[in-house]
Amino acid sequence: MGRKLDPTRKEKRGPGRKARKQRGAEVELARFLPPGKCGLGPARGRPAAPPAKPAVKAAGQTARGQTGFSDGNSKWLAPAKAKKTQPKGNHTELSSDGEVEEGNWEMEEEEDGSSEEMVDDYGASSSEEDELLPIEKAALKQKSDREGLGEDDSEEEEGEEAAEEANRQKMGQKEEEGLDLQLNLDIDEQFKLPTNEEIEKEDILFIFFPPAEPPDLHVIHQRIQGNMEVLQDFVVKREEGRTRQEYLALLRRDMAAYYSYSDFLLMKLMDIFPLPELVNFLEANEVPRPVTIRTNTLKTRRRDLAQALINRGVNLDPLGKWSKTGLVIYDSSVPIGATPEYLAGHYMLQGASSLLPVMALAPQENERILDMCCAPGGKTSYIAQLMKNTGMILANDSNAERLRSVVGNLHRLGVTNTVVSNCDGRQFPKVLGGFDRVLLDAPCSGTGVISKDPAVKTNKDEKDILRCAHLQKELILSAIDSVNAASETGGYIVYCTCSIMVEENEWVVDYALKKRNVRLVATGLDFGKEGFTRFKDRRFHPSLKSARRFYPHTHNMDGFFIAKFKKFSNAIPQARKEPAAEAAAPSAVPDTVTEPQPKKKKLDGSKADKEQKLPQPALKKKHSLKAQRRPLKA
Amino acid sequence: MRPLTEAETRAVFEKLGKYIGENIQLLVDRPDGTYCFRLHRDRVYYLSEKLLKLAASVPRESLVAAGTCFGKFTKSQKFRLSVTALDFLAPYAKVGHGSSSPGPVPAPAPHNSSHLSQYKVWVKPGSEQSFLYGNHVLKSGLGRITENTAQYQGVVVYSMADVPLGFGVAAKSTQECRKVDPLAIVVFHQADVGEYVRNEDTLT
Questions:
Q1: Torsion-angle region of residue A277: left (phi > 0), alpha (psi -120 to 50) or beta?
Q2: Residues of A whose CB is below 8 A from B107
Q3: Which of A192, A376, B41, B164 is the most interior residue, by most CB within 10 Å?
Q4: Residue A408 and residue B203: Cβ atoms within 8 Å?
Q5: Tell me, which fold does domain B2-91 have in CATH?
Q6: Which pTM was predicted?
Q7: Does the predicted interface ipTM exceed a cut of 0.85?
């Protein structure tokens, strides 16, 4: 259908088929331009779009303050009443104009009949009764059917409630219509926050009388968008008398319903992400991350592997500048996990984010490495390939079932320098110690990999997170103790999780910094978000800036957290009243004292002692003598 | 984790000898150290002496694997070679065959790798998949075969691109292979790399 900006061409109105055909851009423009300025550059059609844009913008500004539309659309298109005064309206209108114009331009760009969709988004006509699309008609019919069903119910109450529910849906629909109209035409109109009574009613309905039909997702989605708009420009767009908390509460409920999250998890996520980012994060979790593979440089080169796979009909690309062995698979005509190259051990299926901790660990040849939670063996084999099969790796995991895949993968990839064991990670270093480097990929709540396992959205609660955090703290202390700080080339621990929760990441790292003689060093990864140094009411050590966070929506890889420690002393600081008597302790003291959180109650005793020690270096001897004497006394 | 007894060592070397002839010494004395065989839970592992020290410190119940598993002893004390030994018994593809040629020193293959596996069989691309599913190789799928292969000789099976696919036992000598009809079995299947996906659980 033509898209010419021809004002003389009448567009068809009415419920017929021809009216369904896409309306030209002149319809959109007509809403903003003052009469007579419709269709600037009429005969030039599409190429006119960009030059028309600035003109339209200028025209849009002058279109402010019109009460009606004086072109042919006034019959079916009536703007909503303006509530606010002009100056405020100006500000917001401009932005919305810009927004809408971009959309407008987009629409002009698009080839196919998605102008109907665009029209829907702006809601110019979708809400009008006489312009209903067949599907909307069907939806309304369905709703009235449900209503009918509801009334047919023998239980009076249920019928009532269902009718109320249907009413509410209609209200929601109207709200949505109201929303659409507002977003387009008159931004002075606000997102209507349902009153408290209405929210309570909804709650009661959902708890006591589960509605016969599922909540209307489209309505909820619209509500979310409207709500977010208000929250971002709260001072301007708020409804009088409603607090921000109420808006946030409704937003949380709607998001939980729309994206199927538990309320607990959503609260945690709202603490971590600002609102627009939160929506991106939630959307990113609905979509799987791209499939990536890692070339096994023990057996082949990335170039050769790429060539071989392309010959089999796989569409791939190198992963990025930061990786020399990664390849991302776009699509493939053969199963990637069963090609002869895979079986020959030329590559390993591995997420992009799993390459990062090993790159941070940077294992050198002829070192002793411990991988505490190695299943299914992707990181272990990467370590082995970086070491070129020299040195020694101890690959440990506490789950015997998953160790089978570790053994299988290691053998397939041709790794020969590894011993696989099945111990609980907390038993190190009793089992074996004195490693040069340790990689701890701690078991976690999995909130970074929701796209792989959607069950995490609902089955994690406070207890799970705290339990994970507790286990991680024990594991990290074991990991630190298993490293030999005096190693010439090593002395590094890398701690990583596939979670984005602060309780499992920064908190655990901070705990380790307090409890052991370690310090954080740069991971060597130059991209990724820095770790938090403060979060809500907690304050972490400033060096946590060197830790890295990765998110699905910003980096297009699974959510990850990576921190790299350097152990500078093998001594373990005592956290009791008596001052540490080891020679290494004084060097440890300045570090541990400079992690100062007076709010923290944990290490009060030891801190007091250490603070005593620092300003009185002359008395150090006295203290250590005291310490020597004390055991005898005790 | 214990060293192999006399009988066990003999069984293992006999089996290995079927595939690589008398070059077993090359497996033991390598330029990057001495390697040895150890037995753990009926499986034979091949590892360097350095790794042995590490493996010995791990408690026996917790040890799952060390180095490379070559195969296992069945209940009747026969030694069965597994596909995980393929990297050691098959040499790497040589440069010029168009396939992978690794840059750094290929550690699993001994230094004069080219002569380790004596008898080789190349399989046509069409029958690769069939072999990887565990079927025997038919005459119709046979691409090349080393000269003077005796009957029931252990062979290493390759694809035409010189990628090792597994082990087999020649069902017919080379002479007979030329005469036999296309549907006759020429190589009995012993182990193939498809087992990494099919039988992942039985590797340990």
A1: alpha
A2: 298, 388-390, 414, 416
A3: B164
A4: yes
A5: Nuclear Transport Factor 2; Chain: A, (3.10.450)
A6: 0.68
A7: yes
